[in-house]
Amino acid sequence: MLAQQLVLGLLIGGLYGLAAAGLSLVFGVMKVLDVAHGELIMLGGYAAFWAVAIFGLDPFGSLALVIPLSLLFGVVLYLVLFSFVVRADEETRVKNSLLIGFGLALAFHALAVRLWTADERSIVTPYGGSVILVGDLAIPVVRLLSLLVAFLLIGGLHLLLARWRWGKAIRATAEDWQAALLTGIDVRRAYLLAFALGTGLAGAAGTLVSVGYSISPSIGLEWTLKALIVVVLAGLGSMLGTFVGGLVLGVAEAASAAAFGGPYREVVGLVIFVVVLIARPRGLFGR
Amino acid sequence: MLEIRDLDAGYGDVRVLSGVSLSIGPGEIVALLGPNGSGKSTLLTAIAGLLRPRAGSIRWQGEDLTALRPHLVVERGLALVPEGRRLFGSMTVEENLELGAFAARARREQAAGLERVYALFPDLRGRRRQLVRSLSGGQQQMVAVGRALMARPTLLMLDEPSLGIAPRLVASIFEALADINRAGVGIFLVEQNVQAALTLAHRAYVLESGRIAAHGPAADLLRDPHVRRAYLGPLAVHG
What we know:
Distance between the termini of chain A: 38 Å
Oligomer: heterodimer
Mean pLDDT of chain A: 94
Structural class of chain A: mainly alpha
Helix content of chain B: 25-40%
Largest sheet of chain B: 6 strands, mixed
Largest interface: A-B, 19 and 28 residues
Low-confidence stretches of chain A: none
Radius of gyration of chain A: 18 Å
CATH architecture of chain B: 3-Layer(aba) Sandwich
Number of helices of chain B: 11
Number of strands of chain A: 2
Shape of chain A: globular
Order of helices and strands of chain A: HHHHEEHHHHHHH
Structural class of chain B: alpha/beta
CATH class of chain B: Alpha Beta
Helix content of chain A: over 70%
Order of helices and strands of chain B: EEEHEEHEHHHHHEHEHEEHH
Largest sheet of chain A: 2 strands, antiparallel
Number of domains of chain B: 1
Distance between the termini of chain B: 31 Å
Number of strands of chain B: 10
């Protein structure tokens, strides 16, 4: 029973990692805290839901539509709002981005309620009920696939940042944006790319949430919080570290729910948040 | 080639530079001397485009640089080795150098550029896969100079390249600067080690409290009693 809980925790942990990767990228590169990240996940979830409902796409296949759409949405959001935030110094950026983020979160939430009602929805698949039995453990196929997809996306992002010319430019900008300018990098373009990638990751995370779990207009805050906890836990600078941080949070939540009962599931994340901030402010894998 | 006229610049309410005018010709080595806080770094920062001047002009090959964003200043052939090196510590030596050639013009010659840097600083060749933050200060300074060279500059600006570096390595960095200049690259050097700077430079400017206090051929300044008293004094023994 405990093992079953831990496995489920691990499975959702992959999504925590994916949700956090986008937030971590945006914060690490732009020094902008996008508290509407959870709402971007929510919107991604709805995009996937409708892609499946209208076009009859496979839910995992809908990623091929949702990710490009999210990237594009990220470009628009950056150009309309966040490109002005990054002109300020770093301290002002965080403050301004909090204001803009909260505003966006409220607007997206209201918009989603208006368009799609406050009902909970999730994507139903023919293979949705399948489980793989390993001894006593029942592993839901959809959630296992979600974990796998999350891992592949994080791995892809890692390669992108490690090998691609602009990926290196994004890392350089994260480390020292002035030095990046001095090497001839157009830092504003690096910001644009990082924000678009972050939004793309949010869209992908939302898709996986709507397949293996459920979405409603109000899930945004919860996902922002989870992502924030993972970012603090893992630290900035390593996408694979962020993924592992997500798994750790998922398992820790499951363990505490098993030990102290379901209501304590949420508490453990906040305890981790505080303890890591005190004991290791750079996070487990931070640079 | 570089022509600065009546430049005023500062941060917030603090005015750091007032009415600075200077010029650097093609292939020239010009040193900028002056006490701490006199505005030397501010001047370099303004030329590089990281600080918008309040007044005055910075013209480079006839074009006004003050209107350009910093990454375009690099593209025009002005590269700055900033104070404190400002390398990307979590990346390898080679990644840092490659980022130096990010601008389109430099990227086409990236492979040749790497060869040039390794020929100039043979120490770096064997360490190309090493993380920059694991290097000594002197080696890091070589990477910093190398990264700026990768941009194929016509004018290389350096802010205190000898700061916090073992004397033996300072000598090899100054030798490298002489080599770089022989290849036709102009050098604008801010340096605490006045003796070394004036020995290398053709001309020099002295900046005091944000104003040009003296300028002339380096050999003349080296003999100038005021400069000797202010900048060489007892330190000259160690320099």
